[in-house]
Write a structure and sequence with these properties.
Distance between the termini of chain B: 37 Å
Order of helices and strands of chain B: EEEEEEEEEEE
Largest interface: A-B, 28 and 23 residues
Strand content of chain B: over 45%
Distance between the termini of chain A: 41 Å
Radius of gyration of chain B: 13 Å
Order of helices and strands of chain A: EEEEEEEEEEEE
Oligomer: heterodimer
Largest sheet of chain B: 7 strands, mixed
Helix content of chain B: under 10%
Number of strands of chain B: 11
Shape of chain B: globular
Shape of chain A: globular
Strand content of chain A: over 45%
Mean pLDDT of chain B: 93
């Protein structure tokens, strides 16, 4: 069985602060994919990143960065110099051998001006 | 390039009724998945359609059924609505026939309220 845990229910920061969203996963599959999505108040999930289990390189995209560590089964997401527009719910998801994706419960990020 | 579209945006039904939700995938995509997202929860996978057939199904009762048309658009039908069916229903499309590594792109969702 697959499981994704996002232990942080809600995070509140002030603009320009750095913030890290945690994601811990469980799977017995050796080949799997991890995803991060952003869900603004409008409701639509916006794809941010996909990472496969064989690629442990960290990735940076502008103010966003991702740290994938198989040793700790974690795929954490950091926003540098947060902005009000970053306020949203962020979901981590896992897809393994069953091909059925499992989402975490999400972390609500609130960025205050 | 049109993204994933869903209709209607909002819907209010009463218990016992039936509802049909619609989804048009992103241009170039052939696979459609449906999710139910209850308030404060992550999306829960309902089922996936590819080549007009249900390929994968999550842990949802038979009251939930679907269809995919030759143009890849899809419908989600829910019969005998329960109060617990109130949720945001999300459609996602992808282009790899549901393979493990496919990236799904989501629509804006349909908010269903059951009274």
């Amino acid at each position: 069985a697959q499981k994704v845990t996002q232990a942080q229910t809600e995070i509140s920061v002030v603009e320009k602060e750095d913030v890290t969203l945690d994601c811990v996963y469980e799977t017995r599959d050796t080949t799997y994919y991890l995803f991060w999505y952003k869900q603004p108040p409008s409701g639509e999930l916006v794809f941010l990143i996909r990472r496969n289990s064989f690629d442990e390189q960290n990735e940076i995209s502008g103010r966003y960065s991702w740290n994938f560590q198989k040793s700790t089964s974690s795929f954490n997401f950091t926003i540098t110099a947060s902005q009000v527009v970053d306020s949203a719910v962020y979901f981590c998801a896992l897809k393994g051998g069953s091909y059925i994706p499992t989402f975490g419960r999400g972390t609500s990020l609130i960025v205050h001006p | 390039d049109a993204g994933v579209t869903q209709s209607p945006t909002h819907l209010i039904k009463t218990r016992g009724q039936q509802v049909t939700l619609r989804c048009s995938p992103k241009s170039g995509h052939d696979t459609v998945s449906w999710y139910q997202q209850a308030l404060g929860q992550g999306p829960q996978f309902i089922f996936q359609y590819y080549e007009e057939e249900e390929r994968q199904r999550g842990n949802f009762p038979d009251r939930f059924s679907g269809h995919q048309f030759p143009n890849y658009s899809s419908e989600l039908n829910v019969n005998a609505l329960l109060l617990g069916d109130s949720a945001l229903y999300l459609c996602a499309s992808s282009s790899q026939g549901g393979r493990r590594g496919d990236t799904q792109y989501f629509g804006p969702g349909t908010r269903l309220t059951v009274l």
